[in-house]
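[Meeting: bench + compute handoff]

Bench side (C.D.) handed over the final construct sequence. Compute side (W.E.) agreed to return the predicted structure before the next meeting so the bench team could plan truncations. Sequence as handed over:
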Amino acid sequence: MLTTEGKSMLTEKQQPFSLGGTEIQPGQRAVVDIPFGKLYTHTELNIGAHVVHGKRPGPVLLITSALHGDEINGVEICRRLLKMPKLSQLRGTLIVVPIVNTYGFVQQSRYLPDRRDLNRSFPGSEKGSLGSRMAYQFTERILKQCTHVIDLHTGAIHRSNLPQVRASAKDKVALQMAEVFNAPIIIKAASREGTMRGTANALGIPIILYEAGEALRFDEQSIKIGVHGILNVMQDLRMFSPSKKAVKTGSLFSKKSSWIRAEHDGIARYYVGLGQTVQQGDVLAHIYSPYSDFEVAVEASFNGIVIGRNNLPLVNEGEALFHIAEVSSLDEAEKTLDAITDEVDAAMPSILGVV
């Protein structure tokens, strides 16, 4: 049964939507090119935003990817999402920005040309560094137009992340989005200073962050879970007509996660992968010297599930090797991970209908 708000959305007339000086009529789609700055060569840095404006009123959902230029998994998630036939039934407005950091994307780099991190530059300022000015323009021209946000990320170079969603424990709407997204694990974590998530939180805009895969690599399972998760959120926000309730296995919740670091430099042999459960004292890896018989074990310091891992065997002392999240039950964790994987594999062919 539709709520009073849901009924008003059906009867209220949809208005045109304006972004970057372009007006999109109800039922129309457009790609809006927004200038965000120039390099010293006068090369323009533009951000392309896909706008799908539904025929009926509803939420304005923003999907962002490649805020770090080398995190490309989300670019493919955006491509598949925009091919969805269901978008013809859309209520509200979908804004998809596949590549926020265009410079980093071209350079296959996490950073901007001055080595600044765009996702540590929010909310930015009109007269600051390039990153600060880009963040300011993005906040003012795109972010503030939205009612909900999903920000897509991956691990860094040589680091992989288990598909996971991060949300503020204080934002009930964001936590609801995180639950219906149905990734294997939800990390309840406060946002870092300077991030887009922190700025959205300060503006009162519900936002979740999806982390999955590794920089400069496509990971098919991470992509499938990402597309499926976005569709789950859109369905829950009533951006599509009511349909058969989607199967939801239920994500694992974690309030605490920590990195296990190398206590010595050397060459690592890793024994556990993403999604594996570990117990305190389990040997996760050995680090050895190529010039002696020296070898030391890397052990788990607490029970949990591996949600991040260094993939490079060459390690320095203090380097982060395994990211482990504490969960209430290791047995339930293994069952949940298997069930979500099976659910997504079964659902994607019928949902997508595209390659």
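W.E. noted at the follow-up: Helices lie at 4-11, 73-82, 102-107, 130-141, 172-181, 196-203, 220-236, 330-352. C.D. will use this when planning the next construct.
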